[in-house]
Amino acid sequence: MEPVVLSNVSFRYSRKDDYILQDLSFQAGVGELWCLLGSSGSGKSTMIRLLMGLNVPTSGTVQVFGECAPFRTMRPRIGYMPQDSALYNDLTGRENLHFFGELSGVKHRELSTRAAELLDFFDLTNAADRLVSKYSGGMQRRLSLAIALMAKPDLLVLDEPTVGLDPRQRLRIWNQLFQMNADGVTILITTHVMDEAERCPNVALLADGHIIGSGSPQEICQHAGKTRLEGAFLQILDGERIRREKHLVPRL
């Protein structure tokens, strides 16, 4: 059973609104690491919200491990880090980990051990019993990622996970993601940063609610005749917009 399957998905908030996603299809296999690359407004976060069951598609289907939203039985298998902080500021870092760990189905006897492991890995042990309201932005990002990993998920969904982190922290997190991926965890990451996308073995290019290209960074560059992903993305984007403009021009 494929971890992630989106089939002909379109989404808009109401009939008066424009579509944010249009006839989008995407699939991620077991143990694959995908980067969803696109600028702000391309539909990345909307796609993630659909995957998490936070929104329901206007048309088409979204499946996680074969189950459609809201993924009642599959949710414990999904680790999620939203773009905006979902932490409780009036709890400590350790208390946040315990609270979200329980929600994710971590057994009570395992909470303390798992929380301690993650606090150590993300260099938060010394701040573990400090209120999250006292954390810096980078510390909050690291704690959010730790929460996403509490239940040792089979599918990890990260929306702009390294925003606000310094280069050393970013490298450490990427190394952890690669290790998890090597252990068979399926990972989806959204980003608008090209050098982040170039780290990933699989990239899907999003623009205006469509996937306009996908493959490895090398395959995408080769297809576009470019040496770097940024140039390839811009060329594919320009070509897609020209194609649509021609399609919209009525024939005389």
UniProtKB/TrEMBL annotation:
The keyword rRNA-binding does not apply. One of its GO terms (molecular function) is ATP hydrolysis activity. SUPFAM superfamilies: P-loop containing nucleoside triphosphate hydrolases. Coiled coil: none annotated. Keywords: ATP-binding, Nucleotide-binding. The keyword Signal does not apply. Residues 4-233 form the ABC transporter domain. It holds the Pfam family ABC_tran. InterPro entries: AAA+_ATPase, ABC_transporter-like_ATP-bd, ABC_transporter-like_CS, P-loop_NTPase. SMART domains: AAA. This is ATP-binding cassette domain-containing protein. It comes from Corynebacterium poyangense.
